[in-house]
Write a structure and sequence with these properties.
Largest sheet: 4 strands, antiparallel
Shape: globular
Strand content: 5-15%
Structural class: alpha+beta
Strand order of the largest sheet: 3-5-4-6
Distance between the termini: 40 Å
Number of strands: 6
């Protein structure tokens, strides 16, 4: 049965029924029969799109508009429920399984990046997806991924919040796309390879914008950070869990530089990140004054992952097998819902959808 409508399986042709079967109608051929005054040079010229009249021209324009919309739309997936049931196999009650792309669409990461408690969590999760799970996303999930990524970059450019983390994310994503589009090939990508090359160019543009970002100096009439006493400066440094933040803060003033080189500060940082690791459980018992704790920290960092710390994370209900943001909640049927909750790190989130 021929397709008479604008079906995606149809090439956009119109058909007519004859005694010998169905035959395709060639519109510009009919046009040539009706209009004998068309010049041969016009037929041979490159600008011959005007010859296609009627429904052929209409379908071509509709197809171009649809492709342009699908590739450039910024619309996000909107779901009423901000949770997702994580299913890894078929049962009598449920058929199918949940994928990483579906979770990416359902958990409203587009709104989560507007919350500073969740921004670092989402950025780290997107970095892990860029490293290893980008090809496992569906076409719709990939488009949603890049739309949210654009919002992350725009937020950093506007609020100047944690640009170093987003730069690392874009660098990992750029390396992955470069490897997939040039070295591996188009067979592992969903969609046209030209779209991925355009995305790679967009990522390079974002990297240039972040590198050229200038943080304006803010003028305060009241008390500033330099007006605080030294013990308050030391307490603020002890609250930082990232060594790069401590080093950058120490470059602000000579006083902060002296505080940032304190051995006790780096000893606490080593105990915070590596005290639970093998061969590192006796760090707190070391009493020697000749230990360079700053060098110890960067040495351990090469062999062990640092402890991750986030203001807010996704939670998983072991009773309901539901993944959700704690502020939004989920329809739990357990007698004590709080006892079933388990915080999910970005790496654990990736592991939930590995089959």
């Amino acid at each position: 049965m021929p397709f008479l409508g604008k079906d995606w399986r149809s090439p956009g042709w119109s058909w007519t029924k004859t005694d010998h079967g169905w035959k395709r109608i060639v519109f510009f051929g009919h046009e040539l029969e009706d209009n004998k005054e068309i010049d041969l040079k016009e037929l041979c010229s490159d600008n011959n799109e005007n010859l296609f009249v009627g429904e052929v021209c209409e379908l071509a324009n509709t197809k171009r508009k649809k492709e342009f919309y699908n590739n450039n739309t910024k619309s996000q997936f909107v779901f009423r429920d901000k949770w997702i049931y994580v299913q890894k196999g078929s049962t009598k009650e449920r058929h199918g399984y949940c994928t990483l792309g579906e979770a990416l669409n359902r958990l409203d990461f587009s709104s989560a990046i507007q919350d500073l408690r969740r921004f670092n969590y989402v950025a780290k999760l997107f970095q892990l997806i860029a490293r290893s799970q980008l090809t496992s996303l569906s076409g719709a999930a990939q488009k949603n991924y890049f739309n949210i990524l654009e919002k992350i970059v725009r937020k950093v450019l506007e609020d100047h919040y944690n640009p170093r983390l987003v730069k690392e994310l874009l660098q990992d994503l750029s390396s992955t796309l470069h490897s997939l589009t040039i070295h591996v090939g188009r067979c592992v990508l969903v969609g046209n390879v030209n779209i991925w090359l355009c995305r790679l160019e967009t990522i390079i543009k974002w990297q240039q914008e972040l590198n050229n970002m200038q943080i304006p100096k803010q003028m305060y009439t009241g008390m500033s950070f330099n007006d605080l006493p030294l013990h308050m400066h030391n307490k603020i440094l002890c609250k930082l869990s990232d060594a790069c933040d401590i080093i950058n803060l120490g470059q602000a003033t000579p006083t902060l530089h002296i505080l940032s080189e304190n051995r006790t500060l780096w000893k606490k940082l080593c105990q915070f990140h590596f005290s639970d690791k093998p061969f590192c459980r006796n760090l707190g018992l070391t009493r020697g004054d000749n230990v360079d704790w700053k060098l110890m920290y960067f040495t351990l960092q090469k062999h062990y992952p640092m402890k991750e710390q986030y203001g807010d994370t996704l939670h998983f209900c072991k009773h309901c097998s539901i993944l959700f943001w704690k502020d939004f909640g989920h329809p739990c049927t357990a007698n004590e819902p709080d006892s079933c909750l388990m915080p999910i790190s970005p790496q654990h989130f990736i592991d939930l959808f590995r089959f």
